[in-house]
């Protein structure tokens, strides 16, 4: 009987920890982003950053890849190139799109940190390295796949 209980506890632990693995940076590096950018999870959101010299676009979705309205939201990006730091304000430009531009360039070592505060939500941040080669980003990637494909679906209660 002790073996059955141990197996049940182990199985439950594995079942609850497996969905969390799907949200790691390594997992996001192993899947193609819908707009060709870099994906990250922050709180109840997924962010996809599409970055080009001087321009940033962020797409915001929930964990089921449904668009999240950014109307009324505030966001900024801190771009770090070695000792040079640039801040860019991001503004809603579509249902789930934040965009901004500034005087900055991108290199493979550039770090972009996005800070976002949506109405009636906590503030969240995500760290990106948009030009880091995929082979370096995903070299420790999880090999998680399931019958539903690379997407992972679970629901979070809304905050009130």
Report the total helices.
Answer: 3
Radius of gyration: 18 Å
Strand line-up in the sheet with most strands: 1-2-3-6-5-4-7-8
Q: How far is the first residue's CA from the last residue's CA?
A: 44 Å
Q: SSE order in H/E notation?
A: HHEEEEEEEEH
- Largest sheet entry: 8 strands, antiparallel
Total number of beta strands: 8
Percent of residues in beta strands = 35-45%
Weakly predicted, low-confidence segments: 4-21, 137-160
By secondary-structure content and strand pairing, the structural class works out as alpha+beta
- Principal-axis shape equals globular
Integer average pLDDT: 77
Helix fraction? Answer: 10-25%
Question: What report would you give on this structure?
Answer:
This protein has 160 residues and is α+β, with helices and mostly antiparallel strands. It is 18% helix and 36% strand. It has helices spanning 2-21, 25-29, 134-137, and strands at 38-42, 45-52, 55-61, 74-81, 84-94, 97-101, 111-117, 123-128. Strands 1-2-3-6-5-4-7-8 form an eight-stranded antiparallel sheet. Strand 1 and strand 2 form a beta hairpin. The termini are far apart.
């Amino acid at each position: 009987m002790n073996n059955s209980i141990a197996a049940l506890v182990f199985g439950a632990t594995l079942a609850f920890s497996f969905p969390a693995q799907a949200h790691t940076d390594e997992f996001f590096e192993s899947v193609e982003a819908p707009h060709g950018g870099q994906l990250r999870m922050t709180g109840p959101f997924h962010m996809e950053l599409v970055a080009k010299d001087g321009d940033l676009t962020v797409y915001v979705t929930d964990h089921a890849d449904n668009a999240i309205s950014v109307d009324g939201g505030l966001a900024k990006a801190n771009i770090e190139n070695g000792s040079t730091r640039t801040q860019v304000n991001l503004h809603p430009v579509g249902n789930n799109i934040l965009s901004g531009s500034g005087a900055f360039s991108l290199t493979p070592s550039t770090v972009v940190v996005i800070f976002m505060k949506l109405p009636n939500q906590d503030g969240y941040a995500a760290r990106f390295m948009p030009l880091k080669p995929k082979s370096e980003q995903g070299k420790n990637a999880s090999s998680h796949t399931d019958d539903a494909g690379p997407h992972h679906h679970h629901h979070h209660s809304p905050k009130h």
